[in-house]
Design a protein that fits this description.
The complex is a heterotrimer. Chain A is α+β, with helices and mostly antiparallel strands. In chain A, about 20% of the residues lie in helices and about 40% in strands. Chain A has one domain: RNA polymerase II/Efflux pump adaptor protein, barrel-sandwich hybrid domain (OB fold (Dihydrolipoamide Acetyltransferase, E2P)). In chain A, a hairpin with a 3-residue loop joins strand 6 and strand 7. Chain A is globular and about 35 Å long. By secondary structure, chain C is an alpha/beta fold. Chain C has 2 domains: about 110 residues, Aspartate Aminotransferase, domain 1; about 260 residues, Aspartate Aminotransferase, domain 2 (3-Layer(aba) Sandwich). In chain C, helix 4 packs antiparallel against helix 13. The chains are: A alpha+beta, B alpha/beta, C alpha/beta. Chains B and C meet through helix 1, helix 2, helix 3, helix 4 and helix 5 of B and helix 1, helix 3, helix 4, helix 5 and helix 6 of C.
Chain lengths: ~120, ~475, ~450
């Protein structure tokens, strides 16, 4: 399984990529493989506040729905509209498929490095 | 097979309507420009179309249907016949009350029967289905608390094993769902319940026997604790068939309950409905009941603090006729229904438990749950695969992946109207499938092979939604 | 005495013993004694099929079947073609349940897919769901589809059937949403009042109108739609499904959601139920739709098949966050509606709408000739309200002849402008000229 070294990881299987003071958030390769074929995502709206450890939205597979937790507290700057049209991108390219871009970050969950996360997930 | 639209030929059709015997007059209003595409088909072709569809469906009359939590029992023919009497089907809901005394008498009698069966004081027939009954009951609970000025109560406690309709109904009633854990025996964890009870508790929703088929031995304590906290107890009657005539929800501390007439009282499920989900309640909730009711044969009246209406008229009346006919037939022997339902479930459980892991291995009620997880981990044959393999035996599979607290769940409810031979055949099928799992798991994963279509691509259906025929 | 349990007492005992129980008491000892009923329930002795038939037939016989019906107001006396009963009563359709296992349920799934298509077609919308309980509950759910974090007030025309409004209010009591009724003027929605209300409220979620409205009047839906959209809300049309055989469809008029009572589509009067709520909408609202949706897909061979789809909206997956709690719906009634529409076809669909309209206009003209004037000027289709010197007297005289007259309106349809009673009349294709003339003759005798 693929866990890029330049990303940070949460215990709820989200990844974070910093871009200056802002951060892109998505779900990990491990998460997408556990969830199976994804069919839809539900996002917050631009301008919404998200809170570290709280759901920012969810992902749907055919017969399940799973919350996606925000690893950071901040304000949603952008959402990835491509995923609204084609959720299968998350399965095929989990690290290219960011969900939201967050700015004004005031708090961050304890995040893991790629190696720590790989160990945490026993990979 | 073709869709009915693909069998349509322009100019064909059926003559139903007479020529107009008054001057033709359309409204002087904007008229439709784009015609509706509807099938143009002869009666013969149409009949064959639907006969072909019927052959591609499976009802209780086609074979065993142990769909857990749905109580797919035999639907007596007499019930259907009575519900088709013109003296019921040709009644306008707004014709004068004085012209429908038979309909009101039937409703009153059915209410009496259901009150006796549940121990409750009154019944509203407004709800059209079980989930609708839950919503009704919760609104009555809400109206009760509101009426007392007790407006801080905004939480409904629901066990993690509950039907999905329970939390969804709680949301519709404006309540926050508080989920409590099941204990290692599969029943309510009393400590977790206590930890979540408090001044915000509006009520508890409970199915008993619960969705793993177990009767909660602590039920009296559970309802007492909820009442002590100031909450009310709602009984989800989906599993009433297990205890009908043996346990009355009112006697074990419940205040309001819905029943599924299409489950416990043998009315058919119609490919998904109509059902009927009457709500029975204790006396103190009567002022909040919905709907217009005729008690004096002349006038319709509404309860003093009624929550309003759940459906336009009086609920699914013809379904009520069927349930009434059923209860007249069975009468005071209604407990024999529960007895044989529970016997059949335990018989199957006992005959399968040496090879299939039973989620909670104890005496079950009307249904039991296989937790296939250990087998899945060892063989990659899933609950879905086993369900699909049963299709090749002409058996409708059990409910799968529910309850959520059991991984790879197969929930089996044989019902009381099945013979020992049918159960034995199903047991043999399950055992043969088990042998295949051991020896040739891929054959189970490839099932079904004998159905009109093979396994369908659910992912494609959800990713590329195609919800209607395209005419262009 | 009646029973549907196949196993004999001896067989039951054998089965009990085989699995280690002495008897039923032994089997049921998992239930605490204090929870059990002591003795038999106070229910009558069971009856044989013959006795049951006699008793229930006796009850049915006490009810009056009117040979001629001029009452609508939410339940309509339309012809049910013979094929509808013959086909829908096939046991495979009657005794199946929700098609959870697609491979064994293609017949049910395809019939609903065809129904969804037909409802989308007649309403002129993109997609329809698999059915709701009835028209009123479908209207309440449609309002909820329009609610989001910023839009929470439901506007409803006062010219809708009070029964629909009551259900919307009851549903809204649950989640604490605000329902605002827009008053009427001359029997139709007061457009200025609507425009003003929407302009003053930036939380308006939707406006719901009835088409034709409760008084039978065909309102200016296009204009109401425009006002609603200008006000930032969604436009919901509650339609009579057979009116759309003549009138401009909700799709053509710009509606966001069409709902209605599907009872006229092959269901009887049935003392109010089971009926059929239909709901259709535009593609972009797909994920807000409550209830079941059937979608097309392929099997492992690439052959076409149908499945329950986009289920993550629903209660069994999304639980407390579901778009609705609906589970069982009215699938069998939807099957009847599908058979009905296939039977009458596109020509019949237009013909029945024309028949209803023609008969209603003929009757309105004839009533006017004897002094029972229409309460409102607006154009109508199958229903219309007239004045009546003494509604109770006329309706009683009709009842004596086996005729169910129109519905006496007890409040406000004429906004106090007239001092006589009013009656809401309804005609369908089943009311012949002769039947209508008979009513006129009786009315002449009475007054």
């Amino acid at each position: 399984m693929n866990f890029p070294a330049e990303l940070k990881y949460s215990k709820d299987d989200e990844w974070v990529r910093y871009d200056g003071d802002d951060a892109y958030v998505g779900i990990t390769d491990y998460a997408q493989s556990e969830l199976g074929d994804l069919v839809f995502v539900n996002f917050p709206e631009v301008g919404d506040e998200v809170t570290a450890g709280e759901p920012l939205g969810d992902v749907e597979s055919v017969k399940a729905v799973a919350d996606v937790f925000s690893p950071v507290t901040g304000v949603v700057l952008e959402i990835n509209e491509d995923l609204l049209d084609d959720a299968s991108l998350i399965n095929s390219d989990p690290y290219g498929s960011w969900f939201i871009k967050v700015g004004s970050i005031s708090e961050t969950d304890d995040l893991m490095s790629a190696d720590e996360y790989a160990e945490y997930r026993g990979q | 097979m073709k869709l009915i639209f693909e069998k349509s030929i322009p100019g064909r059709g059926q003559d139903i309507f007479p020529a107009c015997d008054v001057p033709v007059k359309l409204p002087e209003a904007p008229l439709r420009e784009k015609k509706a595409h509807l099938p143009e088909i002869s009666e013969n072709e149409m009949g064959r179309h639907y006969t072909a569809l019927a052959k591609r469906a499976h009802g209780v009359n086609d074979g065993f249907y142990p769909l857990g939590s749905c109580t797919m029992k035999h639907n007596p023919r007499i019930d259907e016949k009575m519900a088709s009497l013109p003296g019921f089907t040709k009644l306008h809901p707004l014709q004068p009350a004085s012209t429908v005394p038979g309909a009101h008498e039937l409703i009153d009698e059915l209410e009496k029967f259901l009150c006796e069966i549940t121990g409750m004081a009154g019944v509203t027939f407004q709800p059209a289905a079980g989930a609708h009954g839950e919503f009704t009951g919760l609104l009555m609970i809400k109206a009760y608390h509101t009426d007392r000025g007790d407006t801080e109560r905004n939480e409904i406690i629901v066990p993690d094993a509950a039907h999905g309709t329970n939390p969804a109904s709680a949301t519709m009633a404006g309540y926050k769902t508080i989920v409590i854990k099941s204990n290692e025996n599969g029943t309510v964890d009393i400590d977790d319940l206590k930890a979540h009870l408090g001044p915000k508790t509006a009520g508890l929703m409970l199915t008993n026997p619960n969705t793993v088929g177990l009767f909660d031995p602590n039920i009296m304590e559970i309802t007492r604790l909820v009442h002590e906290a100031g909450g009310l107890c709602y009984y989800d009657g989906a599993n009433l068939n297990a205890v009908v005539g043996i346990v009355r929800p009112a006697d074990i501390g419940f205040d309001v309950i819905h029943m599924n007439l299409h489950k416990s009282f043998a009315t058919p499920h119609g490919g998904g409905g109509p059902g009927s989900g009457p709500c029975a309640y204790k006396d103190f909730l009567a002022p909040f009941a919905p709907g217009l009711v005729c008690k004096d044969g002349k006038n319709y009246e509404r309860a003093e603090k009624s929550i309003g209406n759940m459906t336009g008229f009086y609920g699914n009346f013809l379904v009520m006729v069927k349930a009434y006919t059923y209860l007249l037939t069975i009468g005071k022997d209604i407990h024999t229904v529960a007895q044989n339902a529970v016997l059949n479930a335990n018989y199957m459980q006992e005959k399968l438990k040496d090879i299939y892991p039973i989620a909670f291995d104890t005496t079950c009620m009307h249904e039991f749950v296989i937790g296939l997880d250990p087998i899945y981990r060892a063989t990659h044959v899933s609950a879905l695969d086993v369900a699909k393999a049963l299709l090749d035996y002409g058996i409708h599979p059990p409910t799968i992946y529910f309850p959520l607290i059991v991984h790879e769940a197969l929930m089996i409810e044989p019902t009381e109207t099945e013979t020992k031979e049918t159960l034995d055949e199903a047991i043999t099928a399950f055992r043969e499938i088990y042998e295949k799992i051991k020896n040739a798991p891929e054959t189970v994963q490839m099932a079904p092979q004998t159905t009109p279509v093979l396994r369908l691509d659910d992912t494609k259906a959800a990713r590329e939604p195609h919800l209607r025929f395209d005419f262009d | 005495m009646g029973t549907f349990i196949p196993n004999t007492k001896e067989e039951q005992l054998k089965m009990l013993n085989e699995i280690g129980y002495k008897d039923f008491d032994d089997l049921f000892k998992v239930i605490p004694d204090e929870a059990k009923v002591k003795g038999d329930l106070d229910l009558p002795d069971g009856l044989s099929e013959i006795e049951v038939s006699k008793k229930v037939e006796g009850l049915a016989a006490k009810n009056t079947i009117f040979r001629s019906i001029f009452r609508g107001a939410g339940a309509y006396n339309h012809y049910v073609p013979s094929a509808v009963d013959a086909i829908a009563n096939k046991e495979e359709f009657v005794t199946a349940y929700t098609p959870y296992q697609a491979e064994i349920s293609q017949g049910i799934l395809q019939s609903i897919f065809e129904y969804q298509t037909m409802i989308a077609e007649i309403t002129g919308m993109d997609i329809a769901n698999a059915s709701m309980y009835d028209g009123a509950s479908a209207a309440a759910e449609a309002c909820w589809m329009c609610k989001d974090r910023r839009h929470s007030t439901f506007y409803v025309s006062d010219a809708i059937d009070e029964r629909i409004l009551t259900v919307i209010n009851t549903y809204s009591f649950g989640r604490g949403s605000k329902v605002v009724v827009i008053p009427t003027k001359d029997g139709v929605t007061d457009k200025d009042a609507l425009a003003k209300a929407l302009a003053d409220d930036n939380e308006a979620a939707c406006f719901l109108m009835q088409y034709p409205n409760f008084y039978g009047i065909i309102e200016d839906a296009e204009e109401l739609c425009k006002i609603t959209h200008d006000g930032g809300a969604k436009f919901i049309m509650y339609c009579h499904p057979l009116a759309l055989g003549a009138l401009k469809s909700p799709g053509e008029l710009g509606a966001d959601i069409a709902v209605g009572e599907g009872q006229p589509l092959g269901l009887g009067l049935e003392f109010g139920g089971p009926y059929l709520g239909f709901l259709s909408t535009r593609q972009e609202n797909m994920r807000q739709i409550p209830g079941r949706l059937i979608g097309e897909t392929v099997d492992t061979r690439g052959d076409r098949g149908f499945v329950l789809t986009i289920q993550a909206r629903e209660q069994h997956i999304r639980r407390e966050k579901a778009s609705s709690n609906i589970c069982s719906n009215e699938a069998w009634c939807a099957l009847r509606a599908g058979i009905y529409l296939a039977t009458i076809g596109p020509q019949g669909y237009e013909q029945v709408a024309e028949l209803c309209s023609s008969k209603a206009h003929y009757m309105a003209d004839e009533l006017e000739k004897i002094g029972m004037k229409r309460c409102f000027e607006g154009e109508f289709w199958n229903e219309f309200a007239t004045t009546c010197p003494d509604a109770d007297k006329l309706l009683a005289a009709l009842e004596e002849k086996g005729i169910l007259g129109g519905l006496k309106l007890c409040c406000g349809c004429c906004e106090g402008d007239c001092d006589t009673d009013c009656i809401l009349w309804c005609c369908t294709e089943l009311n012949s000229k002769e039947d209508i003339d008979e009513v006129i003759a009786i009315a002449k005798e009475v007054f």
